Amino acid sequence: MNARAADRWQRALPLAVPALGGLAYLAAFGAPARLVAVNAGALVLAVLWVMFGRLPSEPKARLRFAALVAGLLFLPVMIGPEVGGVSRWLRAGPVLVHSGALLLPLAVVLAARAERFGPAVLGLATFALGMQLDAAMLAGLAVAGAMLATLRRSLGFALVALAAAGLAMLTFGRGTLEPQVFTEGVLAQVWLSAPLAALAQGALLFLAAPALLLRATHIPRTEALTLAALLVTLGAMACLAAFPFPLTGYGASPILGFGLALSAVGTAQKA
Questions:
Q1: Domain residue ranges in the chain
Q2: What's this model's pTM, rounded to 2 decimal places?
């Protein structure tokens, strides 16, 4: 394996390790074969994108792309299907894609390198997620923004973090949907029958994935810490209420979303 391929594979590990643990959970706890196939297919696509995908290299092009990614978060509110009174999804053929889980990780990574305009990109994402009433994504954005504010010493990122945190508190409980088995309440489900397995599954998300992000030699520390903060917060929110459990629960969107983000870490030039 050449150095470039080894670097790309190292980038994929923070995604592949918890996602493989999630596939083992789905198979062991009797999830329908369709759910296992969806997650497995998403993991293959995400790893392939991390290994071979490329984004524009010119800073202005990246900034426009970051604004586009954040702007796409408004699409569910405008044209997406409504489920339980909220619109967070985009229709991709026969399946629904959770827009926040798909797009927010990439938006965060691109904003992390755009010190001047990054806060504006995340501010746009905050507004869109507030309209979606998605408290989990807003909380993740708040913690990621706070991490960037600390690392970059940026007032702009700090203001975004405060706004996202405020909206997360305002929307908490307002957009909660009926829990879906294998998607929400994952750790609680496993704990009831196999406490050690629940601890192992939690460790994959809360310990192994952040550690692998921080150990990856070609992922800048700022981007690694910010992505880890986002992932851990989304997992914590899934433990607190009926929110999707990322990577290890059923759902293609977070797997694809973190794949997109990992393909971009360490490649965006400062703007």
A1: 3-264
A2: 0.94
| Strand-pair category, 89-92 with 95-98 | antiparallel
Q: What contacts 175, CB < 8 A, 6 or more positions away? A: 84, 85, 86, 88, 132, 133, 134, 135
Which residue is listed with tokens 């798909």? Answer: 102
Quick one: tokens of 121?
């990109």
The rounded distance, in Å, linking the Cα atoms of 147 and 158 is 9
Per-residue pLDDT tens listing for the chain (271 residues): 577 777 888 999 999 999 999 999 999 999 999 999 999 999 999 999 999 988 877 788 888 899 999 999 999 999 878 887 888 998 887 788 999 999 999 999 999 988 889 999 999 999 999 999 999 999 999 999 999 999 999 999 999 999 999 999 999 988 677 788 999 999 999 999 999 999 999 999 999 999 999 999 889 999 999 999 999 999 999 999 989 999 999 999 999 999 999 999 876 554 4
- DSSP character for 177? -
Q: Where are the alpha helices (DSSP H) in the chain?
A: 3-28, 33-52, 59-72, 75-79, 99-113, 118-131, 135-152, 155-171, 186-193, 195-203, 209-215, 221-240, 252-264
The pair of structure tokens assigned to 184 is 């929400």
